[in-house]
Design goal:
The chain is mainly α. It is 77% helix and 0% strand. It is built from 5 helices and no strands.
Length: 137
Amino acid sequence: MEALVAGAIAGYVMAMLTSVAVAYVVFGARDAEVVERWIARDVSGPILFIPILTGSVLAWVFVGLVAAIIYEVADLGAQPDGLGSPSAAFTIVAVVFSVAPALLLGIVWPRLWWMWVGLGLPCVGLFGWLLPHLAGR
């Protein structure tokens, strides 16, 4: 049960960080060519932001719960310590699954590299270190 709560916490915090990035794109970078291709100019920011925020909360909490279930079912808490985490194997997997999308997004949208780094690093910290620590052994 502790692992599920830890996963939900990690996912929710990640959703809040994602909402900051989405708010920047919706309100700050609205004139960017990439954004204009996807979003009509006459759609107001708040109307666009609310469903994206709701979807990100649901998606990230789901990701956190799935990560917690994998952590428990695979008994990764019993794996050796390492990298500042109770489970080095889980942390390595979290690093790979956090850095790979950030690298891909950095290649696709290089002007927003700082946003992808700003989302990738907390993802590593939340899922790679916080979740195993909160889940306990």
